[in-house]
Amino acid sequence: MRTDWDGIEEFVAVATNLGFKPAAQALNVSTSHVSRAVTRLENAIGAPLFYRTTRKVSLTDTGRTVLAHCRQLIQSRDELFAAVGGDNDPQGEIKITCSTLLGERYISPIVRRFCQDYPKVEVTMDLSNRLVDLIAEGFDLAIRTGRLEDSRLISSRVATRQFLVCTSPAYLEAHGMPQRLDDLKAHNCLIGSSSSWRFKIGSKHETLRPRGNWRCNSAASVLDGLLAGTGIGQLPLFYVLPYLQSGALVELFEDYRPEPEPIWAVYPQARHLQPKVHLLVDRIRAQLQPGFEATPLHQLQL
């Protein structure tokens, strides 16, 4: 078994900084030192970690796998040194992913305050509506909504969000007010990332598959369509609340609102014992739901 595993720090720096020269600058060493260290690590592993061209470097499939493990090794080392040295403050990198609007409006301010309280923590946030593979891409934490599929992950409920159906007064004037859920079949429904809408009628839960001539996986784009008077949609309350207040939108079927949908903190099993991840999840749980409920309406404008 080979034990010459030097080069881990340099390899992670190149992958993080997208090049050998910026990695050397970040580590305060020469570019040739970084290049030799990465080459030694590749020789120890027996496979190339980067595709190299004159313009850029990019990770190979092996490199992506090795990167996640190397980041974990560095984090574990730093936490070990901190524990032995008596420093109990969380430190090291936390890599987080979240949907764009939820992240921009709510999660990012919470995480920013967390970093102010714990300056030894370095956070990288990826705000995207794509479903990120936490393990393959080396993420420590994701904030996700609805049903969770990946059994390799640990989840912890941190908040809930309420969905409702709404449209514009202009649309209702042109097409009439639907009186029953079945009436939605005769209306143009703007469909988001979910192909079904949920309702609660008394104690019964109902699901409806809306029909329409427009679909988009961006809730912000669905909202734009609602405001433009092109149809009816179902969105989380925090998207539409200011427009309901101003009269730009009106709620339909208020008595049939579904049960609130859970919002989850999700993380790989290898991360669940890290104090910094637990602390951040606890912070999000304590502040996210009150943020939904206490945000002044004028601050909810898109």
Question: Which SSEs are present, and which pair or pack?
Answer:
Layout lengths: L7 H10 L2 H8 L3 H15 L4 E3 L4 E3 L1 H24 L7 E7 L1 H18 L3 E7 L13 E5 L7 E9 L1 E5 L1 H7 L14 E2 L5 E5 L2 E5 L5 E2 L3 H9 L5 E4 H10 L3 E3 L8 E8 L6 H20 L8
Parallel strand pairs: 3-4, 3-5, 8-11
Antiparallel strand pairs: 1-2, 5-14, 6-14, 7-12, 7-13, 9-10
Structural class: alpha/beta
The count of β-strands is 14
Number of helices: 9
Q: How many structural domains does the protein architecture include? A: 3
- CATH level-1 class of the largest domain: Alpha Beta
Radius of gyration, in Å, reads 24 Å
Give the overall shape, derived from the CA principal axes. Answer: elongated
The CATH topology of the largest domain turns out to be D-Maltodextrin-Binding Protein, domain 2
Q: Strand-and-helix sequence, N→C?
A: HHHEEHEHEEEEHEEEEHEHEEH
Q: Unreliable runs, pLDDT <50, ≥5 residues?
A: 295-302
CATH H-level homologous superfamily name of the largest domain = Periplasmic binding protein-like II
At CATH level 2, the architecture of the largest domain is: 3-Layer(aba) Sandwich
Largest sheet: 5 strands, mixed
Share in β-strands: 15-25%
How are strands sequenced across the largest beta sheet? 4-3-5-14-6
The helicity comes to 40-55%
Give average pLDDT, whole number: 85
Distance between termini?
57 Å
Keywords: DNA-binding, Transcription, Transcription regulation
InterPro entries: LysR-type_TF_proteobact-type, LysR_HTH_N, LysR_subst-bd, WH-like_DNA-bd_sf, WH_DNA-bd_sf
Family: Belongs to the LysR transcriptional regulatory family.
GO molecular function: DNA-binding transcription factor activity; sequence-specific DNA binding
